[in-house]
Amino acid sequence: MPGFEEARRIILESVTPLGAEQVPAWEAVGRVLAEDLLAPRDFPAWDNSAMDGYAMRAEDVRPPVRLRLSAYIPAGGDASEPLERGTAAKILTGAPIPAGADAVVPFEEAEERDGAVLLGSPVRAGAHVRRRGEDLRSGAVAVAAGTVLGPAEISFLAASSRLSVPVVRRARVAILSTGDELVAPGEPLAPGKIHDANSLAVAAAVRLAGAEPVLLGIARDDLGSLRELLARGLAADALVTTAGVSMGDRDLVRQVLDELGVRQVFWKVDIKPGRPTAFALRGTTPVFSLPGNPVSTLLTFEQFVRPALLRMMGHGSVLRPLAGAVLQEDVSRRPGRVSFLRVRLERQGDDLLAWSAGDQDTGILRTLLRADGIAILPADWGDVSRGTRVPVQVLRSSAGGAR
Ligand code: AMP
Ligand code: MG
Questions:
Q1: Residue 13 buriedness (CB in 10 A; 0-12 / 13-18 / 19+)
Q2: I need a labelling partner for 138 at 20 to 30 A (CA). Which of 26, 118, 283, 354 fits?
Q3: Is 292's C-beta closer than 6 angstroms to any atom of ligand 1?
Q4: Distance in Å, CA 198 to ligand 2 centroid
Q5: 140 is a domain residue
Q6: In the predicted structure, residue 88 carries a pLDDT above the cut 80
Q7: pLDDT in tens, 349-401
Q8: Total domains, the chain
């Protein structure tokens, strides 16, 4: 049975990146770029003014001097006429610098009178001129493959007049809840039945990871039902099942996956909670069998499935950064395996403080509802005393704000 880091390493080494697809630039935010993006031309394409002011030849300025205004070049204007010697052009920001001019004096540093500009001090050649290609040279790599596209990258696409962009495909993730006790939300409950919380919870987590959930519904604890739905799920890019993988005699998921030619990689992980977490592969399709308890389902999804999906979708960084939080109460535990503690977090000055979010039994969803993060207590730690700095995954970005 692998431990926490080992299980995660095995999973990340087993999954393979998905292929690329072309998407419209306006839908590309958050996607991972599949190929380097090159500058299709120089940026800027021509020398232009960085200020509203007057364009001139620096060498014409021997102060004090008066230069006649021989042209007016607004943004979007035309500067095909070279600047007459010994004159200046009134120019606005972004407008092309006319041939012959090599400097701009901002309005506020000059005085304009009677169609001329008066200058009291010398001007440096190149002042307030944005040079052609100073931002990006034609053919330069502007955005490297693997970059997560954000507004800045979209800005570059738009400026390049590129309407579409190659990105790594989103993973289609099939989701199957299993159990005779489950009823779809919205349906009436008979005695002994509960509503299926996991399908929608996992779908939500899949969506937040940037992937696409495909809901298979609920499989009964019988071979026929599992065969049909698991076979369907294996057509997706990844399959996530919940429940039905413990030792109970009705737990048949493992058997049916075997029959369907799925190769089991591990069947348990030495963590608490979430021990009955299984990982398997059919070809390159990963199959995650998560424990059925909704708290365990979401914790193990966060630790194992989310990083795997991100890796498949081309992300370089797939693990949440760990913050150090100062524990505000004693926590008793036995060493042996990594455990996950649902915590409330609060920022105090430069410190992040952590409290247990409540009863840590996995039957208690309330504690997960109150949690801002997950503290990861290393396998070799015993009781943890108040004041210890513990590694936490921050789940809510609002954590540490006033609550
Ligand atoms: P199992 O892994 O089948 O032993 O299930 C563990 C616990 O999680 C049991 O109490 C199940 O009723 C519960 N459970 C399993 N699947 C779901 C689900 N989809 N929604 C809510 N609870 C579930
Ligand atoms: Mg069950």
A1: exposed
A2: 26
A3: yes
A4: 12
A5: no
A6: yes
A7: 999 999 999 999 999 999 999 999 999 999 999 999 999 999 999 998 665 54
A8: 4
